[in-house]
Specification:
47 strands, five-stranded mixed beta sheet, six-stranded mixed beta sheet, 3 helices, single chain, elongated
């Protein structure tokens, strides 16, 4: 394998011999790239056939019942399971049910710096970094729901180079890199200042251009930087850059200098995308040669905005291409074909728009697609069943297989009530935490049999126990607060045998009991109003609400 200095000279030398089909394909790993048929244009561009398909059902995301029509620029998921969407009109948080919008508020210094969101990135410490179009870099403090600001300050040489932040990336060393319209920055966490890397017209070892649009670290530890005028590889030891630029005389040079996305796939091939021209190049690290790909019937001009915004590899090795004008493409490397999923005006379950700008797979395997006109999601694979059960000798399993109640919460946890206590499951890690009654601890679970679970609008968890009344769980302290029957207090719970719970549309908590009907809980006073069913068996196992009122279903009704 030649070294990188030789590679640059090799890439820039003139070529006079046209490459054959097998010459082009041999630049890649044979087991992946040498199967199937491909059509090669005279300019050595690989053109896999494009097949339109309609086997994916895209579910649009709505805000207050209306489809989200914003231009989606970036997607990330935080450690709590919330999805974050960057748009041109603010930052959106999605908890699976509701959308919360964060916008700049001039009177609030803790608000996001700008409504034009260019990048959203979660680092390994769980911090959420927001790149804005004119307000610089923000870091979200989730505990305070406030943003810390890192702006460009003209008289501060250690501040951000430019307030237009295009991309954010953390390398394996934990260093945070920021791409701006004024160059490349590395954040020094200790001092809160930035180390700058810029283009110098007199220095061929400097960055090729100051508009930095993509940052990526490959498995060898090489840092790649995409700009509006070329791809760069950084030498960490010297902070020097090796440039990869388009050469019209070299069919194995990069296809376009405007680089917006970089990805190393599982075989070690580096995929580089551009929003202009054909839009996709693949670098073989063994040879230093690029192969150019196209999905157009007729080749667009190099100035046409018809290329690829980003490339994503899924866990199965499938490559997904977010294109500017052809929707979402999936590259099948075994068959060398592209499957296209596009917008269909008469199909509400197709893509909202053919201009796709972001793609993200969340912890549950759901793919989120951000377009110029809204957001959709689809499961990458059909849902499969994961079995959780008690395993003798395994403390990280269910404590009992006799399940009484199950409820998911807004933070992504699953709460499971059973005969001998309460389990909390983190489905992303498979970790269980177990809670049980302790007679010596007044703030433990009031009774081990948990028959009902609900979460209110404020995130409080409520547990109905069969013998200990109603429990409220304080997440911050991990303590339980019990509401129990008191024979001397008519405003207390009518019995400690709670078998069902309901939170109605107004947020009121209703409690169904065994033997004593049901009750309405007043959260401001902590008092209960009881309703006794005049039947021989007033056991309320189900509480539900229709459009008009709340109902309790007794065992005999």
């Amino acid at each position: 394998m030649r070294n990188w200095a030789d590679t640059i000279a090799y890439l820039n030398r003139p070529r006079t011999m046209a490459l054959s089909l097998f010459g082009i394909l041999s630049l890649f790993v044979p087991s992946i790239y040498c199967t199937g048929e491909q059509r090669i244009a005279t300019d050595s561009v690989v053109k896999p056939p494009v097949i339109d398909k309609h086997d994916i059902r895209f579910t649009p995301i709505s805000v207050n019942g209306e489809p989200l029509r914003s231009w989606i620029t970036a997607i990330a998921q935080d450690d709590y399971g919330f999805l974050w969407f960057g748009t041109l009109d603010g930052l959106y948080k999605y908890d699976g049910y509701r959308v919360t919008v964060y916008r700049h508020q001039p009177e609030n210094p803790d608000s996001v710096a700008d409504d034009s969101i260019r990048a959203v990135y979660k680092d390994r410490d769980g911090n959420l970094w927001i790149g804005t179009g004119s307000g610089g870099l923000d870091r979200l403090d989730p505990k305070r729901d406030a943003f810390a600001h890192y702006p460009h300050e003209p008289h501060n040489p250690g501040s951000l180079l430019n307030n237009n932040v295009v991309c954010v990336y953390q390398d394996r060393r934990g260093q945070l890199w920021v791409g701006t319209n004024g160059g490349l920055d590395r954040l020094d966490r200790a001092s809160g200042t930035f180390v700058h890397y810029r283009h110098d017209p007199q220095d061929l070892g400097s960055l090729s251009n100051d508009i930095v649009t993509a940052i990526y670290e490959d498995r060898g530890g090489n840092l790649w930087v995409g700009t509006e005028r070329g791809l760069n590889r950084m030498d960490r030891a010297t902070s020097r850059f090796l440039r990869f630029v388009h050469d019209p005389a070299n069919p194995n040079s990069i296809g376009h200098d405007y680089v917006v996305s970089i990805l190393e796939d599982r075989s070690g091939v580096l995929w580089v995308s551009s929003p202009n021209g054909s839009g996709l190049s693949a670098l073989n690290p063994q040879t230093g040669d690029f192969t150019r790909y196209s999905f157009h019937l007729e080749e667009p001009s190099r100035q046409s905005s018809t290329g690829v915004n980003t490339v994503v590899e899924d866990p199965d090795g499938g490559l997904w291409l977010c294109t500017l004008d052809r929707g979402l493409l999936k590259f099948n490397r075994e068959r060398n074909t592209l499957t296209r999923y596009g917008h269909e005006p008469d199909n509400p379950n197709s893509l909202p728009h053919d201009s796709v700008h972001a793609l993200y797979e969340d912890a549950e395997g759901i793919m989120w697609v951000g377009t110029r006109s809204g957001l959709s999601r689809f499961p990458r694979k059909p849902p499969s069943f994961v079995r959780y059960q008690h395993e003798a000798g395994n403390p990280n399993s269910l404590r009992d297989n006799e399940i009484q109640s199950v409820q998911g919460d807004s933070r992504g946890f699953i709460w499971i009530g059973e005969e001998h206590g309460l389990n909390r499951l983190n489905p992303r890690t498979g970790e269980f935490i177990f809670y049980k009654h302790d007679s010596k601890d007044t703030h433990s679970l009031s009774y081990n049999k948990v028959d009902a679970i609900r979460e209110d609008r404020s995130g409080n968890l409520w547990f109905g126990t069969y013998g200990g009344g109603l429990d409220r769980f304080d997440r911050a302290t991990e303590r339980f607060f019990a509401y129990r029957h008191d024979p001397k207090d008519p405003g207390s719970l009518s019995t400690d045998a709670v078998v069902s719970l309901l939170l109605d549309r107004e947020g009121t908590l209703w409690v169904g009991t065994q033997g004593e009907g049901f009750a309405r809980f007043d959260s401001t006073t902590g008092r209960f109003t009881s309703y006794l069913i005049e039947r021989s068996n007033p056991d309320v196992y189900v509480l539900f609400q229709d459009r008009r009122a709340c109902y309790g279903q007794a065992e005999t009704a």
